Amino acid sequence: MITAAGPVGEWFWEPAPLVAPADGGALRALELLSNLAGVLASCGLVTGEGAGSVVLADRRVMGEPLFARRDLPPGAGLVAAAERADAVGLLPGRLLRLSLALAGEWREAAAVRRGERLFTLRVEVWGEGAVLVALSAYADAWLAVDLRGRPQPEVCGENAPRLAAALARICGATGAPVDPGDPTRYADPTAEGFADQGEAGAEHDDAWGTFEVPARWRRLMALLPGGSDGRDYESTTELPVRYARVRVGERVLGFLWASADGAAGYEPRSAAGDAAFGAGAVWLARLRSARLRGLGAPEALDGLLGAAAADGRHGGSAVEDVTREAASLDVLEELSGRS
Question: Angle of helix 153-174 relative to helix 25-42, nearest 10 degrees?
Answer without folding.
Answer: 150
